[in-house]
Amino acid sequence: xxxxxxxxxxxxxxxxxxxxxxxxxxGQGKVYRIASDGKAYALKWFHQALATQAQFTTxxxxxxxxxxxxxxxxxxxxxQTDSEESFGYVMPLIDQQKYQKLTRYFxxxxxxEKQTHLIEACMQLVHSFxxxxxxxxxxxxxxxxxxxxxxxxxxxxxxDNDNVTYDNLTSPEDNWxxxxxxxxxxxxxxxxxxxxxxxxxxxxxxxxxxYKQHPLQGRREVEIDILDEAANQMLYGQHPVFIFDxxxxxxxxxxxxxxIAVKYWEQTPDTLNDLFVRAFTEGLxxxxxxxxxxxxxxxxxILKGQLLYCTNCGKERYYHxxxxxxKHQLRACPHCGTKQFLLPPRMKLEDRVIMLNHDTVxxxxxxxxxxxxxxxxxxxxxxxxxxxxxxxxxKNASDDKWTYHKMQGEEQxxxxxxxxxxxxxxxxDFNGTMGLVRLSVKQE
Amino acid sequence: xxxxxGKMGARDLHLFFIIDASDSMNYGGKIETLNNAIKEAxxxxxxVAAEAEGTIRIHAMTFSTGARWLINHVDVQxxxxxxxxxxxxxxxxxxxxxxxxxxxxxxxxxxxxxPVMVLLSDGLPTDDYEKGLEKLMATKWGxxxxxxxxxxGQEADMDVLQAFIGDxxxxxxxxxxxxxxxxxxxxxxxxxxxxxxxxxxxxKASLPTPPMPDEAIDVEALDW
Lengths: 444, 224
Known about the structure:
heterodimer; A: Tumour Suppressor Smad4; six-stranded antiparallel β-sheet; 26 strands; B: 224 residues
């Protein structure tokens, strides 16, 4: 059997491509860089054993359907050579200078400079899952090897989409996936992959991105010496337990051995933590209680608005609403331990409080947190007055008209690019939603 | 905020090379190819390790007249390969015994994935390999290992190699027979990368597809 070589050509219904270089190899086949007319693409070429009629039909269907959104590296067209021993498909090429495999984030090699970008990546993941599910598809085998991220922005790309399938599987033979991401009912062989099992995988991905540790890997995992099939079955299928389960303490993080989630959990506001508790208690056993994409989007939107900078060490930390409500004092900085006496300017929108830091950029999801596409649309940004840096304004980055009342009571309309100077008690009408601004206040 | 405050507690993948260094390996370029194959696999094993949360630790031993360890627990990022110079008979049983002793002594308290053990041989064992294999399979780490066997050339005893593989992948795995240099390189590469990766990222009971030979088999070119 001949394998593809550099210099070979493949034909598709979009023309012929020249094989330039092998750029990757996986269990299913090899990936090559190909080119035509100066434009570069990627080619996945299946191992002969997997180049079946069924696989061919799957790829044809995916090509016909088109990608759910621009973040999916999706089959564009089927590729063939003169020899009929195998086939492949053409897909967009990921710019590996810009995008890193998410596995490198977990191996500790790379990190997000700003929490904002990490949250953005999470939102894009949620949105992409949603787009996939809206098309009646389910992912089946998400893992960190399939997700690429641009650290400077949080933009993601999702690959290995030839395992995507219609949400209508019934056969237990369809029960496969990677341990750690598979829903417990799949691990136990009780149910096939579906959009509901995808929701479990999504909750694992989000938890790992935000707290680093796997939600089901605490003491129970540490006590396993060799992680074989039987151990994986117990850990993820027969007896999965959340590391922060409110009642069952048998799987807590193990101090000094496997405890990285602890600090992140302590730093994160309750609203998000509570959602993960639900995802990994009721969500483990009752798929109908799993957290839906819109709920994640709302929680991430609120989280983004809770980011603020420690006035002592300058590192990012979170605002905890209950701290202020109950103790009237923000808890100490998780990095430097200093108590924070100065709250940044912030804005109340409906029942949410959004921090207005010097560099805050807000999107429309702050106005409509359950709207899956709103995070892509600009809303507002904080700017400092060019000559008076302690005077901050809120700039309209949207196409809506904002209204507010000036000191003398006259109504002022602000269009795109317009700036409203921030004042204590400032009320803005964001095209129907009311926002109330409070300035920095030193607390005793 | 994205700094690591706390321990990840990652596991390592332990990869064992169990290599036949008998006299016959000197002929037909077998040992040269094996030495080169391991050297060439190193960057690819490093890639697999780079994406894993822990690392891949290499152990290598040879068996000829008796057995000896070359290296133990070496992080693949620091791993370099010194050419083996074959000499002696084929005490495979002794090799299995040494391996089981190491597994009993060195692996207490270690957390890992299923270790990957790659046996490479070109001929028949000259000692009681069954006794050694029994000892190996009586150890926890030995019995739970993913055991791969690569026959170098046509003279290896496939039954012995199959016995080593045992119940790995529920008995669906056969010894890989390398009939020329190119196949040996591919099989060593596959065993050390694809299988390691499958142990680190286990899917429900799946076997990574073995590599296919590059060219159509030319009977004239069989040189072992």
